[in-house]
# Entry
Amino acid sequence: MRIAVASGKGGTGKTTIAVSLLLSLAALEDDIRPSGLQLLDCDVEEPNAAIFVKPVIEGQELVGILLPEVDPALCTHCGRCAEVCAFHAIAVFGEKVLVFPQLCHGCGSCTCNCPTGAIQERMSPTGTISWGSVPDCPGVRFGQGEMNVGEAMANPAIRALKKKMLPEVDDGVTILDAPPGNACPVVETLRGADFALLVTEPTPFGLHDLRVAVQVARGELRIPTGVVINRDGVGDDGVLAFCAENDVPVLLSIPLDRRIAEAYADGIPLVDAVPAYRQDFVGLYHKILTLVEGES
Amino acid sequence: MADDPQQLVVLSGKGGTGKTTVAAALAHLAAQELSLSIADADVDAANLELVLDVQKVASHEFASGLLAEIDPDLCISCGQCYEACYFEAITPGGVGVPYEINPTACEGCAACYYRCPVDAISLLTPPSGLWYESNTRFGPLFHAHLFAGGENSGKLVTLVRQQARLRALDDHRDLVLVDGPPGIGCPAISAVAGATLALMVVEPTLSGAHDLSRVLELAEHFGVPAAVVVNKADLSDKRTEEIEAFCAARAIPLIGRIPYDTVVTEAMVQGVPVTEFTDGLVSQALIDAWGIIKEKLVGG
# Structure
């Protein structure tokens, strides 16, 4: 079971919800606790889940894209590489071949189209993925990606993290914490998820971005989708009306509570600040299970 | 480039810290003394129009990037495309069953197109968003709507920012105000590169401080000077003090502390900048911050 936590708008509480769900499930008695429980922080531009989960990192590896490297002895300057590159990341000027690493998507097209086999691929790091355990939660795994500052593309780190942490045969529960927005890194995180949990706040900004997030998750990717309303009580009724009209289930509402905001400021998870919420998060998990089973 | 307009970009690293709230207030305050051209560079969650009372003047299609498509009648199920694709965007068929492209995974690199031995693959250029020119009472606004899961949001950011700059050049406007995206990846890079000043809106939390350090590094990487405002500053005096110390150690000016107040949300619900909605402590902090920004822009 893969549950991706996304939002559209930033700062609505994705990490708060993802971490609270993880910790609430991890605290269940052995016989009812889901096995293979893990959290992947896929917000590789600004990963924050580790602040709350406090994992012990046990391993890491550099991740990146495969950049072309041209062997001048074999290159005939025919220009085929530049012709096939959809990203204008390689150019041939006279007897010189230039590669622009910031434009390269690492697709390998130039390499396989070079008629003389003059291009080799070399991994160029764009970030790091790391993984480990959570001392407070025996058996729980944690993974995160972190993109290097100045790099443009988040997707390679997200892809590498998922590849590393998601088993081929998957009977555990993985929670994926997505980046904000609705563009390609969010799609990369959501792809393959069994459920999209969209966290919003009941304001015009929250609603505006939730509409697009529902379109991405349920419309484009065809993933069953539900909503968590965070900071309930601020703003207006637009989000509730939208969810009712569009048949998007609201699975949990968390009222605006200064205690939660202050705990967040200090890196304390919601369910540690207000333990009564653990029960609500276990309930949330069961609602998700029911919705996913109903779908299949 | 003497008459090139100055460009102020609002960023944050972490999402939801109040970029758009601050940008809308700055649009309101700046327009009282300068002529503006405004860009909403958060194209996959574009909210500035919700508080600037926009009248759309023109709408344009944005197409960027390719999408591969396999003709099932021509496909011989040889699997070459599947081998060529580094992005797991091709769903294998079987003997006699055509292969398929998953459009949400396709990177548009065309590797499969060149590999296919029977020319069964074509390349499409589907629209990935719309961009708009609008009028607001504070100046023209250039904004966009990236279609669900759209690619190339960085290019769309570049486009709206460029349009705002061109309008400023045409009309001899003083300032281009850019409401930026969260994060530090391609959209943030497209929003910050070449700006005169980056205003970082941070919240006093461990996450906010962590993300601030990364987005400040990004601005430095592109040689853009930065200033910081702490939003919801009274939520944690301790974190606010840490951020103050962090900024002081790096000689980055901290130019405002905006208190937490639900009037910010009330103004959003009314669809107006908070400084137009109320003259309380939040507005006062923003007015003071704008005074300092103006000095920096004039001085720069």
About this structure: The first strand of chain A starts at residue 2 and ends at 6. Chain A has eleven helices and eleven strands. Chain A has a mean pLDDT of 95. Chain A touches chain B through 60 residues (CB under 8 Å).
